[in-house]
Amino acid sequence: MECFSTNRIGRTFILRLDQGDYVLEAINGLIQKENISNAVVVSGIGTLDKCVLHMVTTTGYPPVEYFAKYDNIPLELVSVQGIIADGMPHLHTMVSDTEKAYAGHLENGCRVLYLCEIVIHELLDLNIKRIRNEKNILQLQDMGKTPSRSYK
Predict the structure, then answer these.
(1) Measured between alpha carbons, how far is 106 from 66 in angstroms, rounded to an integer?
(2) CB neighbours of 37 closer than 8 A, spacing ≥ 6?
(3) Under 8 Å between Cβ of 120 and 39
(4) What is the spatial distance between Cα 44 and Cα 59, in angstroms, rounded to a whole number?
(5) Contact yes or no for 41/83 (Cβ under 8 A)
(6) Per-residue model confidence as pLDDT tens digits over 78-109
(7) Residue 125 in contact with residue 136, Cβ under 8 Å?
(8) Residue 62, preceding bond cis, omega within 30 degrees?
């Protein structure tokens, strides 16, 4: 285990998405427009009428991934959270219909039904990036300037 830390919090963004907007595409647009390198997505709520999630379906290597698509069904967007490292978001989400809840990696194609609100806190003085390890899994890595501690 490795820990990356900063005591410098930058800007806070509260993103309002309207009917027909796409969630991950809007977050990526904000990252580019505002030049966000590292941040944490702390909250995301709303409603969707289209959703694409991906999840792993095996416990071995390489992981086998499944893409679940929900189309033209009203879904509550219960949660969006995750980390933006080196401008690349890794976000998980949970949605629900009237009977079940579904969770996985947030993918492009999740469309807002009525509204969506997302809160992002920028993290300053971090220099982290996701790099593939020997098993081809993306891991956060210190790129040389981040105070980090190993807990092995």
Answers:
(1) 12
(2) 84, 86, 87, 126
(3) yes
(4) 28
(5) yes
(6) 999 999 999 999 999 999 999 999 999 999 99
(7) no
(8) yes
Across 1-150, the runs of DSSP E, i.e. the strands, are: 2-4, 9-18, 39-56, 65-85, 88-96, 101-106, 111-123, 128-132, 138-142, 148-150
pTM of the model: 0.91
Model pLDDT, residue 1? 83
Q: Retrieve residue 76's tokens.
A: 């509550």
Helix (H, G, I), strand (E, B) or coil at 7: coil
Taken in order 102, 103, 108, 112, the sign of the CA dihedral is positive
How many angstroms separate the CA atoms of 84 and 127, rounded? 11
Only one residue has tokens 């930058």, namely 10
